[in-house]
Write a structure and sequence with these properties.
This protein is mainly alpha-helical and about 325 residues long. Helices cover about 50% and strands about 5% of the residues. Helix 2 packs across helix 6 and helix 12 packs across helix 14. It catalyses: 2 a phenolic donor + H2O2 = 2 a phenolic radical donor + 2 H2O.
């Protein structure tokens, strides 16, 4: 992995320059906390190392949380805000309620960061670092995270319900939804490789294993054993049938064998525009690692407009 990581860091350095601006509190920077909170990255990594050691699946959960945060009004930690009697956040939006988890991990890391440097590091930056470390701790690449995000004072459940692609999405829908965020089809295909980690609930892939024709019959039968046509909605299955707790390129090999768990996954390799890239990633793990890292930097630069009211929250679940 050493040579892959070196290549990734070189490639990402160029991307970081292009996507270093736009945060509501000013431009993002690799050196944002160097003087104000020099230990923040080691604190976050230690917290993620503990979480992943206790449950490898948590790495996938934190990565998913970051994706779901960034696709709704930018990477502003809006997904972390709790509902109150007078406020409806994003946690209970359809795409989040039963698939995003690990809030307690970010809360625990935030507590440690606050103890080291009070009222300095945003929850949005902690989540960005935690997602990077989740990937790396499970065998994937690393990259330099641009920092300086600030935390939203509000959230949008309606945007969470409409801005996030679902497991039944078509290729055209996927391309459009990512393009709406300034992400190319190549970025979309690389970021979809995050599904090399984690598990999914039966209800999210039932239609795929019973109704789709572009699915390996043995794979469909395997998944049907624990996901009946009715009932068992919450039963889990690995998204990547080969190495669900390791960040690698096996996801693309799955697609090439018609073993994508979600309909949206298999859309990337179904006689369409992304077939060639899926084959490349399946045969070249270093290319996938580099493209994934670059796409994560681009996605991480999705921040609210400069005019958006923000703050550095003292607690990730509520505004100050």
């Amino acid at each position: 992995m050493g040579s892959v990581v070196r290549c990734v860091l070189v490639a990402v350095a160029a991307v970081a320059v292009l996507f270093a601006g736009g945060a509501a509190g000013g431009p993002l920077s690799t050196k944002f906390y160097d003087s104000r909170c020099p230990n923040v990255q080691s604190i976050v990594r230690a917290g993620m190392a503990q979480a992943v050691a206790a449950e490898p699946r948590m790495g996938a959960s934190i990565l998913r949380m970051f994706f779901h945060d960034c696709f709704v009004n930018g990477c502003d930690a809006s997904i972390l805000l709790d509902d109150t009697a007078n406020f409806t956040g994003e946690k209970n939006a359809g795409p989040n309620a039963n698939s995003v988890r690990g809030y307690e991990v970010i809360d625990a890391i935030k507590t440690q960061v606050e103890a080291s440097c009070n009222a300095t590091v945003s929850c949005a930056d902690i989540l960005a670092l935690a997602a990077r470390d989740a990937v790396n701790l499970l065998g994937g690449p690393t990259w330099t995270v641009q920092l300086g995000r600030r935390d939203a004072l509000t959230a949008s459940q309606s945007a969470a319900n409409s801005n996030l692609p679902g497991p039944g999405s078509s290729l055209a829908t996927l391309i459009t939804m990512f393009a709406n965020k300034g992400l190319s089809p190549r970025d979309m295909t690389a970021l979809s490789g995050a599904h090399t980690l984690g598990q999914a609930r039966c209800v999210t892939f039932r239609g795929r294993i019973y109704n789709d024709s572009n699915i390996d019959s043995a794979f469909a039968a395997l998944r049907q054993q624990t996901c009946p046509q009715s009932g068992g909605d919450a039963t889990l299955a690995p998204i990547d049938v080969q190495t669900p707790d390791k960040f690698d390129n096996a996801y693309y090999l799955d697609l090439m064998q018609k073993q994508g768990l979600f309909h949206s996954d298999q859309e990337l390799f179904n006689g369409g525009s992304q077939d060639v890239l899926v084959r490349k990633y399946g045969g070249n793990p270093a290319m996938f690692a580099a493209d994934f890292a670059k796409a994560m930097v681009k996605m991480g630069a999705l921040v609210p407009p400069a005019s958006t009211p923000t703050e550095v929250r003292l607690s990730c679940g509520k505004i100050n």
